[in-house]
């Protein structure tokens, strides 16, 4: 075809957007950046193009000029952009398939749990220098945003989600100089850094709480939620997510304080304007250093119900739906936006435990100026009944994604995730972690997560297909949630140890918190200490990064290919989503499309070989990727092997 550049069909994205992205990448000296700039600017390169960079630059200049013309036309026609697909025949200029383009919509986020990522100083605990040493590994995956779980000073009652000092780095993780180095090294690699913002509660060792508990007259008393006893009992029947009452009697003043999580995590009183102002200041402290946003821990809980009424019986098993979405939540988030968020080019993602899908647009609709996106728990908790494992079905999972795509219009954005530090390993929970299918199913899940509609969040180790840990004893566990539940259920003989541990193996948070498996040396290369803070999964001899980096067919390399495919395919970001076969119990087949640019994703969620006739008149065209090797199969009938995943253009 010769050497030339083609404006893709979907290059109706605004010229301003194209220029902005081209410029962002052209500014960098990264050799990958030019190609990246081309594809991100909506310019497709024909194979073999990147031989002669000046030619490309000239062509890009032409494209940019063309774009400027286009921009002029669109504004002259009062915002009516070119036809861009079914959702948005009248979409405003500058949109893609009706969506305002944003870097955080196009990003792939990689979540790091620092305690378990990489230990650099041999104390058995991961740290910031350890992360720095692995940034090339992370960049090699093709992700562009790192979400760092709490790295702040903490007594670690809940592994950093109990913050003692918001402006200090946890000693075990390093120093502020290490943090600055990490941020710089991430930026040098053209990635962004998002921090965890944990402000529903602090540690009970935070200076505010230390003062608050001293006396009822303390200037900090009203920073937290204190109440007297009611008839000699806690002020209400609220329960903690970590077992027992959500109230703790403090002997110094004889009053109770509220803690929705551990006793050492007292809830802040957001109704106090001083608290809100303190939070905005600490957010600015990190944003001014150059971080690119926040993942906001249990943010829908910050506004408590007026009068703190008792939990009604129907909420007892799922109190999150009662604690979330309090009366002032929107007001506080809009204030936060005015005071902080609107002043930075940043992303926000709220951990929206207890928020229903119907409530979601009220938090993320861009016209409301609250959050960019939230984590909806419907998919990740599909395998749960309360805290217990339940067998889920594929039609249930598919229904969730359809509901999400219907509930969120072009003004709202979604997230896609099936794992994190609070949930079991994705391949164990949603795939098949047996030796025969672990690799295939981990790849199939990566195919899905990277092509569903929303910003994908990947948890460390899932790119290797790391699995749940074979826990047999409570002594092997670290998580405060599990330890408290053991006390509440097993010690009181409500549940047998065997049943409890079987559930731990399925759903415990510790499954995902075991250290990263880097190589086949002792402790999986995570630490040089004799013992890691939490035991490394014994399967590190077979499953580890070193092995996967050297194996072109590994989950890691497949993930990187998928990430590259997503990056050059706007339809996987902004395209319409259609589930082709919602009731099929084994096959997940869906399309992503922007106008004539159409992609078909077919995933076999079973170990069975399946002959699959595509619904309607759809025919598989050009195969773009497959997790079980190349196939020439096209047309309307596909022969899929167990856990096979394919993406076609059609
Ligand atoms: C949600 C976090 O993801 C979890 O790890 C933590 O225990 C609770 N919030 C309390 O901060």
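^ Assign residues to that structure.
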């Amino acid at each position: 075809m010769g050497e030339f550049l083609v404006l893709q069909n979907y290059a109706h994205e605004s010229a301003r957007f194209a220029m902005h992205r081209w410029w962002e990448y052209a500014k960098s000296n990264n050799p990958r950046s030019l190609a990246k700039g081309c594809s991100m600017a909506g310019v497709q390169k024909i194979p073999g193009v990147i031989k002669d960079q000046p030619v490309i630059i000239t062509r890009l200049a032409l494209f940019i000029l063309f774009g400027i013309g286009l921009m002029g036309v669109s504004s002259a026609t009062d915002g009516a952009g070119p036809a861009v697909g079914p959702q948005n025949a009248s979409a405003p200029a500058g949109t893609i398939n009706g969506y305002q383009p944003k870097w955080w919509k196009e990003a792939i986020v990689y979540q790091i749990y620092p305690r378990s990522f990489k230990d650099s100083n041999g104390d058995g605990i991961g740290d910031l220098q350890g992360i720095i040493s692995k940034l090339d590994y992370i960049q090699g995956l093709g992700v562009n945003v790192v979400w760092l779980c709490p790295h702040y000073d903490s007594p670690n009652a809940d592994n950093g989600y109990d913050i003692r000092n918001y402006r200090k780095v946890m000693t075990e993780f390093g120093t502020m100089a290490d943090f600055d180095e990490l941020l710089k090294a991430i930026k040098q690699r053209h990635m962004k850094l998002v921090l965890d913002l944990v402000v529903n509660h602090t540690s009970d060792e935070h200076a505010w709480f230390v003062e608050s508990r001293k006396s009822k007259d303390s200037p900090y008393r009203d920073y937290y939620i204190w109440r007297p006893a009611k008839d000699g009992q806690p002020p209400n029947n609220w329960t903690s997510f970590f077992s027992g009452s959500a109230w703790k009697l403090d002997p110094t003043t004889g009053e109770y304080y509220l803690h929705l999580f551990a006793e050492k995590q007292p809830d802040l009183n957001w109704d106090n304007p001083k608290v809100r102002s303190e939070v905005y200041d600490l957010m600015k402290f990190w944003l001014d250093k150059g971080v690119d946003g926040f993942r906001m821990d249990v943010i829908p809980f910050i506004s408590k119900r007026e009068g703190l009424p008792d939990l009604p019986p129907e909420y007892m098993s799922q109190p999150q739906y009662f604690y979330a979405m309090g009366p002032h939540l929107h007001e506080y988030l809009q204030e936060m936006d005015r005071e902080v968020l609107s002043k930075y080019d940043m992303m926000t993602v709220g951990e929206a435990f207890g928020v229903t899908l119907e409530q979601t647009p009220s938090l993320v609709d861009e016209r409301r100026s609250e959050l960019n996106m939230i984590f909806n728990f419907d998919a990740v908790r599909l395998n749960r009944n309360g805290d217990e494992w339940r067998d889920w079905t594929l039609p249930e999972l598919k229904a969730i994604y359809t509901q999400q795509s219907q509930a969120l219009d072009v003004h709202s954005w979604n997230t896609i995730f099936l794992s994190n530090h609070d949930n079991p390993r994705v391949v164990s929970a949603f795939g098949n972690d047996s030796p025969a299918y672990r690799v295939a199913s981990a790849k199939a899940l990566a195919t899905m997560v990277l092509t569903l509609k929303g910003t994908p969040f990947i948890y460390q180790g899932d790119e290797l297909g790391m699995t749940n840990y074979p826990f047999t004893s409570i002594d092997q566990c670290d998580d405060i949630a599990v330890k408290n539940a053991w006390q509440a259920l097993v010690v009181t003989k409500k549940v047998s140890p065997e049943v409890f541990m079987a559930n731990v193996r399925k759903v415990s948070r510790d499954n995902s918190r075991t250290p990263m498996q880097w190589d086949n040396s002792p402790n999986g290369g995570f630490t040089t200490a004799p013992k890691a803070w939490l035991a490394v999964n014994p399967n590190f001899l077979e499953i580890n990064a070193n092995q996967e980096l050297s194996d072109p067919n590994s989950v890691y390399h497949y993930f990187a290919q998928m990430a590259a495919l997503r990056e050059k395919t706007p339809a996987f970001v902004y395209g319409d989503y259609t589930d082709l076969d919602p009731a099929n119990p084994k096959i997940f087949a869906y399309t992503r499309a922007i106008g004539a640019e159409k992609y078909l994703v077919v995933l076999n969620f079973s170990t069975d070989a399946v002959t699959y006739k595509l619904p309607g008149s759809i025919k598989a065209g050009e195969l773009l990727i497959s997790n079980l090797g190349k196939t020439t199969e096209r047309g309307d009938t596909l022969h899929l092997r167990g856990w096979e995943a394919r993406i076609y253009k059609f």
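The CA atoms of residues 257 and 607 lie 51 Å apart.
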